[in-house]
Amino acid sequence: MSTGVEERLQAALGGLAESAYQDAAGESVAVVPPENLREAVKALKDSPEIGCDYLSFVSAQDMTPRVPRFDGIYQFYSTRHHHWFRLRVPVDDGKALPSLHDIHKGADWHERETYDLFGIPYDRHPDLRRILLTDNWHGHPLRKEYDYKLEPAWALGTNVLQNVAEEGMAGHEAGGDEPAKTIVLNLGPQHPATHGVMRLAVELDGENIVGCVPHIGYLHTGIEKLSEHRNWTQNITHYARMDYLSPMNNELAYCLAVEKLLGLEVPKRAQYIRVMMSELTRIISHLVWLGTHAMDVGALSVFLYCFAEREKILEMYEAIGGQRMMTSYIRIGGVRDDMPESFPAMVEAWEKDFDAQLSMYHGLLTKNPIWRQRTMGIAAMGSETSLSYGLSGPLARAVGIDWDLRRDNPYSSFEEFEFDIPVEQAGDVYARYLVRMEEMHQSRRIVLQALEKIAGTEPGTYIVEDYKLAPVPRDGINESIEELIHHFKYWTDGIWVPRGEAYGFIEASKGELGYFVVSDGTAHPQRVKIRGPSFSNLSAFPEMIKGHLIADVIAAIGSIDIVLGEVDR
Amino acid sequence: MVRERITKPDSSSVVEVLSNPDDGSILLTSINKVIGWFQANSIWPMTFGLACCAIEMMSLTASRFDLSRFGSEVFRASPRQADLMIISGRLSWKMAPIARELYEQMPFPKWVISMGACASCGGVFTTYAIVHGADHILPVDIYVPGCPPRPEALLDAIIKLQKKIKTGTYVAQGLKEGRR
Ligand code: SF4
C-alpha cells in the first residue's frame, strides 16, 4: 500500500474522523464516530483520490471490557486506485449504527449478519431480521460471553416451510377481496439446483418473477466463533472446509493475513508452490461450477467430463497434501511439505490434455443453441449496481469491471507471472460462463510458469526456518534437545501472534476472499471475520432475477457459483 | 418327488435351488428375501447435499467411481421417490427440522447413511450451530468415518447397506408395524 494514504484519508474525511493511521501491518484505518459514519462513507466514495466504490464487508468486533463495547468495522476498496481502507466505529451495547444500505447496496446483508451475530441494530435498515440463525434463536453468538459449544434447546418439529408467505414476502399481500394475483413458490432448501442448502421464496405472476427473497443460514457452522477457541494453526483446518470447492484458496488467504501480522517473509519456493496450488484449485472449483451449471440447464454429459477431469487434479492434491480435498497444506510461513519429485510429471501429464478438454467443453456449449438461449441476456446487471452490491471475481469481470487482485494487489509473488484477465461486457449468464472458461485456460498458463519457477529454487525451502512459527523437521528432533523443546512448544502452545489486525485477501475462484484477523497477542485469534465472495454475490440475486422467468432462476443461480459453506460460514 | 439340493445355501443366497426329476429344477425362496434382493440392488438415494461431503458424494456418482455399477445412480430430488438418505455433511440446527421432515416424507422402507465426521458426531465443528450427530434427530443405519470420506468409503457403506437389506428383515418388520 502506498505511503501517504492516511494523509489523503484524513484530507477526504476532514473533521469527520477522530483519527486516521497506518497500523502495524501497513493498513490504513480511520476511527469515525457513529454520527459521522454516513457522511464519512459518502466522502470516501465521492473523493476522487480515494474513490472507495466497493464495500468489501461490514462487521464488528467485541472489545469487552472496553466501553463502548463494540467496534463496527467497515472494509472498503477502490477499484480505480486499488487500495484498501478500514473504518472503525465505536458503538456501545444497545446503541444503533446508521445503515449504509442506500450508499452501498451490499451493506444490507452484511448489516443483517452483524445484527444477527453481535446484536448491533442498524438504524433505518429496511429489513433488519436475523439472516444466518433462526428467528427464534437466543443470544448473539459472536459476543464474547456466548458459549461456543452451547447446544440450543431447540424444539424440533417446527415446520419451517409454513412461514414462507409471512417471512418471505412481507409487503406483497394482495389487498381486500380481490384474489391474489401472485403466488409464492418455495425453492429449497432441499432442491438440486440451489447447489446446497439455500431457500428462495420466489413470487410469481404466472411464470414471471415479481420478487425473490433468498433465505440462507441452513449451513451456518459458527466457524468465526470457533476460530476464537482454536489456535492459529488449528484454524486452517476449518477454513478449508468453508468454501469446500476451493480448499487451498481459503487456507492461503488466512495464512497471508496471519503472515502480515507476523511480518513474515515466506520463502520463494513456498510462494510459487502456493501460486501453483491456488491456480489448480481455481480450476477444480470452476470445473465443479461448469459441470453442475450445465447439468442444471440440461447438459448432463458436461458434468461427467468435468468430474473426470477434476479427479486428475485431486490426485495431485493427494500427492502433495495427502488428502483428496481437505489437505490443510498451506501453513503459516509456507507449506506443509515440499513438492514431491513426481509432481511435475503429474502436472505435465494433465496439462497436455487439458486444453483439448477445454475446447471440448467449448464445443459442447459455447455455440450450442440451447445453451445460448438459456444463458444469453439472462440475469444481467449493470456495472454500477454490481459494484454497489460488492460483486467481485468473474461476476464483476463479466460486466466490464477490469479488476483482479492477482494483478492489482499482487500477493504471493503473482507480480512475476504472466497471464491475461478476461473481461466481458454483457454481464449476463453467458458472459460469466465465457469469463470462467478463459480463466481456466489462464490458470493452466500460470501453473506451468510456477512449475518452472519452482524448479529454479532450492529444494527443501518450503517453509520459514523459524521454529517458533514452523514445525521442526523430524530429523532435528532426534538430534538436539533444543529442537525437541521447539517441537513440543509448537505443538502444545501453538504460535503466538503479536497484537494487531490485518486483512489478508486473495482473488479466489469466486471473487475477493478475505480474512480479517485480530490478535490480542496470544495463541488464539481475538476475532476472525471471513469475507466470503459468495455472500455478497448472492445478495445481488433478487435484483438480478427480477422480471425473468422462473426457469431462469436455475441458470442464474448456477452462474453466480455460490458455495453455501462460504455464504453461511 | 425326490428333492435334491444342488447348491448349498448360505445366509446371503437369495434362492435355494432344488432339482426336480420330472421337469428340471425348482427355485425356492421366501417373499421377504426376493423383495430384499430387489430393494438392495435398486437403492435410490435422495439428492440431499449439505456440505463438503456432498462433493465427494457427487464424485461417487460421476465418471470415475460410477455408483451405477451398484444400481444406485438414480438420485432423486424428491424424498417421495427415494429410499436412502445420505446425510452428507454438517447438519445445522436450522436445517435439522427440514432434514427430519424430508426423512418423514420418504416412503417405507428407508435407510439413512451418515456420511462424514460432521454428520456422525459434529466432527471438527462442535459449535452452537451444528447438530452434534445426525442421530439426534434421525435413525441412522450406517456411519461412514472420514472428513470427507473418500468416495470408496461411501461405496463401501452402500454395499454394506445392501447386505443389510438383503436379509429381508425390513419388509417383515414394516408389515408387522402396519407400514407400507
Ligand atoms: S465431515 Fe469434514 S468434509 Fe464432511 S462436511 Fe464435515 S467438515 Fe466437511
Structure description:
- The complex is a heterodimer of chains A (569) and B (180).
- With 569 residues, chain A is α+β, with helices and mostly antiparallel strands.
- Chain A has 21 helices and 15 strands.
- The two termini of chain A are 29 Å apart.
- Chain A has helices spanning 5-13, 37-46, 107-118, 164-168, 223-227, 235-240, 247-262, 268-297, 300-321, 343-365, 369-375, 383-389, 394-397, 405-408, 429-455, 474-479, 481-492, 533-539, 541-545, 550-560, 564-568, and strands at 19-22, 28-31, 54-62, 70-77, 84-91, 97-98, 122-123, 183-187, 199-205, 208-215, 330-331, 334-335, 500-508, 511-519, 525-531.
- Chain A is globular, with a radius of gyration of 24 Å.
- The longest helix of chain A is centred in the middle third of the chain and has 30 residues, at 268-297.
- Chain A folds into 2 domains: 4-123, Beta Polymerase, domain 2; 223-568, Cytochrome-c3 Hydrogenase, chain B (Orthogonal Bundle), CATH 1.10.645.10.
- Chain B has helices at residues 31-40, 52-61, 96-105, 116-121, 151-166, 169-176, and strands at residues 4-5, 16-20, 24-28, 84-88, 111-115, 142-144.
- In chain B, the strands form 2 sheets. Chain B has a 3-stranded antiparallel sheet with strand order 1-2-3, with no helix packed on it. A 3-stranded parallel sheet of chain B has the order 4-5-6.
- Classes of the chains: A alpha+beta (569), B alpha/beta (180).
- At the A-B interface, helix 5, helix 8, helix 9 and helix 21 of A face helix 2 and helix 3 of B.
- The structure holds iron/sulfur cluster (SF4).
- Residues 51-53, 89-90, 116-118, 123-124, 147-148 of chain B line the site of iron/sulfur cluster.
